[in-house]
């Protein structure tokens, strides 16, 4: 068996977070992009390369850590006297859970609020389930919604905001965390597991009651 065949057999299927994207410019060859990247990460760490749709170059590296280092330290490359930007093939997303949202409030109103905080959404808003442990009512949704945004360390997510819709004021709660308790505002557990006395009374003057925030991106989980 040749050295080339042996190397191919040892290759594992890479993940998308090991890939970078560059815009193809003029008559530059694929080799030009591969060599420019290889000069930084070392040739042995470049695994796959190809032209893809929308006039772009996609290059897979040996490890995700190489992608992290490359895009942070070398966001631009100079190829044949032309500057080319480097970006991840998969952009990391951060989830925001919005709780205590009255169902009558349209998604567009919440989306405008999120954009007003300077976030860049990378997914549509969606409802989360109420977590009712009864097969006949498993379809019932909660007063929670979720959206994925591009992470931005310069933005401070407020814990709550007052939203006005149809002449009514609503206080909604926001969190990055997959598990956040609305009773004590701490992470790592949900309200049904909280040992502290509820701080927000169902009889308060809020139009809706706060709801637990625990789910996953692909499918909402139930939290009982």
Topology (SSEs and partners):
Elements: H1 3-10, E1 19-23, H2 30-41, E2 46-52, E3 56-61, H3 64-73, E4 76-79, E5 82-88, E6 94-99, H4 107-116, E7 126-129, E8 141-149, E9 160-165, E10 168-175, E11 179-180, E12 213-214
Antiparallel strand pairs: 1-3, 1-5, 2-3, 4-5, 6-8, 6-10, 7-8, 9-10, 11-12
Net shape: elongated
**Backbone CA Rg:** 23 Å
Number of strands: 12
Our count of helices gives: 4
Low-confidence stretches: 185-190, 198-224
Main beta sheet strand tally, sense and closure: 5 strands, antiparallel
DSSP strand (E) fraction? 25-35%
Structure description:
This is CCHC-type domain-containing protein. Residues 181-194 form the CCHC-type domain. Pfam families: zf-CCHC. GO terms for molecular function: nucleic acid binding; zinc ion binding. By secondary structure, the protein is of the alpha+beta class. The chain has 2 domains: 14-88, 2-Layer Sandwich (Alpha-Beta Plaits); 94-214. 18% of the residues lie in helices and 29% in strands. The chain has 4 helices and 12 strands. The strands form 3 sheets. The protein has a 5-stranded antiparallel β-sheet with strand order 2-3-1-5-4, with helices on one face. Strands 7-8-6-10-9 form a 5-stranded antiparallel β-sheet, covered by helices on one side. The radius of gyration is 23 Å and the shape is elongated. The termini are far apart.
